[in-house]
Each structure stands twice: as C-alpha cells, then as structure tokens.
Automatic annotation (TrEMBL):
Organism, scientific name: Ciona savignyi (Pacific transparent sea squirt)
Residue span, SH2 domain: 592-693
Protein name: Signal transducer and activator of transcription
Family: Belongs to the transcription factor STAT family.
Cited SUPFAM superfamilies: p53-like transcription factors, SH2 domain, STAT, Transcription factor STAT-4 N-domain
PROSITE patterns for this protein: SH2
Amino acid sequence: MSLWAKVRELEGDSLRQIQNLYGQNFPIEFRHYFADIIERQQWDQLDPDNTPNDEPHAKYILDLFLGEIQKQCDSLIEARDFVQRLHFSEIASHFKNVYGPAPLELVRTVKRILSIEKRLVQHAHSLIDGGMHMRNDQHSEKLSHINSELKRLAAMTRDTENDLRQLQSNQEYFVINYQDSLKITSELQQIQQLDPSNPNRQYETQLTRKQAEVDKLLRAEAQKLQQLRASLATRHEETFTHLSQLQNQILDEELIKWKRSQALAYNGVQHESNLDQLQQWCEQLAEIIWQNRQQIKRVELQRQQLPINNPGRDVLPDLNATITALLSTLVTSTFIIEKQPPQVLKTQTRFGATIRLLVGGKLNVHMNPPTVKASIISENQAKALLKNDTSRSITEMSGEILNPESVMEYHPQSGILSVNFKNMSLRRIKRSDKRGAESVTEEKFTILFQSRFSVGGNELVFQVRTLSLPVVVIVHGNQEANAAASILWDNAFAEQGRIPFHIPDKVPWCKLIETLDYKWKHECHSSRGLTQQAKQYLGYKVFKQIVPINSDRQISWAQFNREPLPNRNFTFWQWFNGVMELTKSKHLQKHWDDGAIIGFIGKAESQDKLVSKSLASFLLRYSDSEIGGLTIAWVAESDKAPGIPRVWNLQPQTLRDYGIRSLADRIKDLDQLMYIIKSDNTTQVKDEVFGQYYSKTISSSPQGDGYVRTELMQHIPNSNHITNVSIMGDHSAPNTPASGYEAQLSIHSPTTVSHHNNIQYDVPDMGVVNNFQQANDVTGNMEYDDTLDCLASCNIDVNELLSRQL
C-alpha cells in the first residue's frame, strides 16, 4: 500500500495538516496523480545541500516529472479533459520556472512533504496499540488545542483590527465635527464684533444654538472615543494574555520537547522530527504578533493625532512593551540547531551543523540575509553567558574553529531559512585546569552559534544565540569510548533548564539499563535489544548481586565509567562498549539479529545450561575478562572421566580475529561444535544457523598459473589429548572449572598434496595465534584493523614449505 493511499485515509486534524502542506510550488493534484512516480525515487540518498554530487540526480528527477506530466497531457484528448490538461500544463510551466534554476529545491520540498506524511501516517497507525492509543489521543488533543487556539487568536486579531478601523472612522468623524465647531465659533465671534444695528446680528442666536448642538455632539463623540479606546485596549490585553500562554506552550513545551528528543536521539531513542510543524506554529504566532504590534503602533498614532485625556491608567505603553517582548522571545527562541555537531569531537577533523531560524521567512529576515558565526566555549563560559546580559559578547574562546562563518539561505519552496556548516574543523582546544578524578574525557564544551539581524526595516534589531548539546573534545581515537560515556550520561539524565552542564552523580539502575537498551539497538541497527537475561547479567556485573530490572537502586558515575570492575583494569562502560562495538560490526551484527549470540551470560550459568545438553552443543557468550571478546563454550566428554560431560571454553576472539576468518567459518571448521543453543533457548544444527554465511569452498583444481590455492582454517591443537592443552581459563567464575581451548588457524589446501613419504602437512601459524589480541590500555579502548598484517609479518612461502625434504 503506497504512502499516498495511507494519507488519503487520514481524518480530522491530520488531514487538515496534509492540506496545509501543499501549495503552488508543489500542488496536491500533482501529488495525487503522480504518487507512484514520486514515491519510487530514492529521496533518502539525496542531500539538497550537496550541490556538486546530487544536483545532476535532482535535474534528472525534475526532467522525469516534466516528462510524466507531458505524457499525462497527451493522454487527455477528450473535450471534457480540457481544464485538467490546462492545469497540468500550468504545473509543468511553474516547475520549470521555480525548480529549473535550482533542482535541489525540488528535492528539499518533496523530502519535507514526505517526512510529514510519514509521521502523520505512523501516528494514525499506532492507534492500534492500547497504550499508544491513549498517548496519541493526548497528542492529537494537544495538536488540536494548539491549532484551535491559533485560529482563535487570528479571529481575535481580526476583531481588534475591525475595532481599530471603527475607531479610526469615529475619530475622523470627530475631527470633521470639531472643524465645523471651530468654523461656527469663528463666525460667531465675527458677528459678535459687529455693530448691534447690523442686520447680520440676527444670526447670532442661530449660531449660538448650532454651536451648542455641535459641542454636545463633540462631547458625546469624545466620550465614545474614550470608550472605544478603552475597549480596544481591554481586547488587546485579552489577546496578549492568550497569545503569551500559547507561545509559552509552543516554545517552553513543544520546542523544548523537540530539543530533548534531539539529545536522546544520540542514545538511540527515536527522534520524532516534527520541526516543520513547529515552524508552522511559530510562523502563525509571528504573523499574529506582528499584526497586533502594528495595531498598537496605529493606536499610538491615533492618540498623537487626537490626544484625549484618559481618566484611568494608560495601559498602551504596557501593551507595546508586552507585544514587543513576545516578538523578541519568539525570534530568539526559534534560532535553533536543526542538526547538531558531533558530541564527541576530534581535533583536526571536519564536522558540520545546520542552524535554522523558524520565523525567518515570515519576518522577511532573508531580505538581508544574516551571517552566523560558530565558536567553541567551555562549560564555565556557557554558565557565564546564561547568567549575564545577552548583549554582552564573549571575546575569549576555548578553541579555534576553522571556517566558522556562513550566511543563512532562504529556500522559498519550503519557507526555510537556514545555514548549513559543512567544513568546520576544530584546530586547537584550550582546556581548563582539572582537579581530582575528572579526566579530559569528562570535560565538556559547547559550540556557540550567534547572529545579528533586523526586522521591520531596521526598526527592531535582534542578537540571537544558541548553544549546542555538550561536546567532549578528544585528540586521539583511544579517548572516544570514555568520551562517549560522558555524552551518553549527559544526554540521558540532564534535567530541563539546568545550569550548564550539571548532571546527577547517581541515577536509578532502571533508568540506566533502559538507556543502554536504546543505545544497543541504535548502534547495532537491530530491533533486538537487551533481553531480560542480559539486563540481569549487567546488573550483577555492576553490583555483584542480583538486582531486579526495575530496581531504583542508585548507580554512580564512578561505578559506570571511573572505577574499574573488581579484578579488572577496565570499567563497566568500557566492557559494555567493547562488546557493543564487536556486535555492531559487519562480522557479528547479522548473527546477533539471528539470535545466534546469547552474549550476556556468565561462565557458570553457561556451564549449567550446557552440561545437560547433548555432546557437541555450544553457545556464544561475551568474554568477562577481555574487552570486545567473544568466546565459545561447548560440552564434550571429560578427558579424566570418560562418559562424563564437561564444559570447555574457547579463547576469546575479537574483531581482528573475525577480520581474518569469519565467525561462521570458524564454527564450521570445528567438528567439536555441532548444535548451537540460541538466545531463545532453542537448539539447532549449526549448519542451519550459519550455513548461509559460510565462505565459498576454494577450488581443488590447480589454477591457471599451476598453483594450488590455500585457505586459513581454525582448529584446536591436541584436541584428542585434553591434558596436553594449556589452560586458557576465563577467570570470571573462579568456582567453575577453568577449562579452555586455544583455537589456532592453520594453512590448509583443499587437495591432499603428497611428497616423498606421503606426509600431509598441517602447519599451524603460531604467530597468528599469539598475536590476535591487541593490548588494551587502562581505558579499555581498542583500535581495530581488519587487514592481514599479522600474517604478512610471518613471511610464509607455502610452495617452499610443501616441497621441503624431511
């Protein structure tokens, strides 16, 4: 079912939002008749700001649309289709004029429309779930309330506009009568100066009576003007009260909620991008505020033209201050970061960000496009910036950013005023003097974006600023994991309206494990998150006792990523991040999705699970003793007590190992492994689970050059003599047998090559075996390399080896 077919099923407020999406630059008729061709395009692969690379593709799509319109026009040959054919021709002509010079604007417009359509359809379909039904009812009710309030304020503004016009008309009528009164007074004074015998003195009584009537009328009109002015001021006060309440709801609730969602998105929480909806609301607010401000200015002008003493308090200055403050708050609050810079920022590395002014198009800021400047400041500087007056500028920065300035651009098709920084780079950073246990990966900075522009023909000048989410600056890749921990904790547990960048030192375990679950699913690109067993395992790893998943027991930052785990030289986060990096890699991600990796299970628990299974059963678990290691535990016959099952553990393997030979092929190589226990506790033959991932078998025939190809294979040396194998135990569970195998890779030819005494050579490469694991520093950060460096260093000549005389 196409997206447009689902859109047509929307009702109520969602349908009204859809109708507001379309206009002359992208008519709803085009969306309806050409829905299939629109939705077949790969919009997600196009960036409207990537002119050099994506503009040719955008031009192709525009030409495609124009061609389809022409085909449709050619098919409309009946007389009754004349109007429709004419309308399609107008659409094509408008597309050529608007998008021909800038085809990427078509991409921007369509992507925005499709994004909003998808969001509204998802909201409508999520009503199937009961709890979601209630939440969406509340969300729909909130949307309906905001839209109805905006309509109400627009109606109130129209009413005050009508009152203002009536007041202007009455004032003009008063002025005309007042001029008549002055004329009568002048004539009366002239007559009174005449000689009593003058015949014109007979008009004195008539003029006196007429002047009295006009004066009476003027007094009545003056009182009416006072009443109208007071009534208009009261209605403006009412409008401004409702306007302030609605603006607070949109800016302090909805926009703040969007910013909070943006921060949580780093941790993997789904970010509902309703920024276009927020812009529509803010633009309507800006229009209403601007109209009311213009009304107040006209009232001031009327009072200057006709001063009338007000018996009560004059509220006009307060009204002027209130409406100007509302406009200032709206403008400064809607200068936002649409796309945040990376929160783990490495020096000498290019990065970007997108800044957007939600009301820029409505207030015509683009008529004199402002320049936005980026700079990096420290946590203390951010605190000082928020405490001090916004008019003060920061002269000393905490670092130097290359390419820090760019001019905002207006996109008329979407009505968006934004600037896209693409080539910024942090050249250097100035750190503060740290005390105590805090490390450089816990020090936070922020990117300050600021600009200055005028509204209303330089009548109002705004200086706007916005701060990015906290940034941790690193200079080396081995600092990245610890920096990511600081950002994860901050994004998850920062409170609204905090002092930069205060965070709680302790949080409930249930909140942290929920954060880790989101992070895991996001990083591993998997719908399969942390299972109940995994969460219990992680709780035990932290507290060394069983902790309920919903426990409010506090875990401190020190426990999370400052103090090493017992008997280890790495922290809880470093271990968790290591297995997450391992699992999200191309080598293991598919196996995690398939449920082949249990992962989060202790050594003792895995032994209990395996000992009751058939011989050659195995499972995959993360190593407790090594960061980013995966081990295989399997059950085999005991070497000391034949017939008695015993659980063995393979030496942990890391990304470097799987870059040499995949997990599936390693499992295929070992005949000791036959039946895998999956995460759902079911058992399957290994070929059923891993068969689709096995590498193709190398041909046994000699190649064109006469050589027989070889391949690497994993095997367990001396597997028939367990007592001769070095114990490689994982010390995570001292009370269980520390039994383990060290798997080795051997060079294997698919054909049996005999020489002299018909000896088949199996040559283990001990250099490969002993150099798989990379030494970890105390922080537990690892740099992986998927090449065959370790093999190249062995300098093995296979042909010389096979022909060697014994």
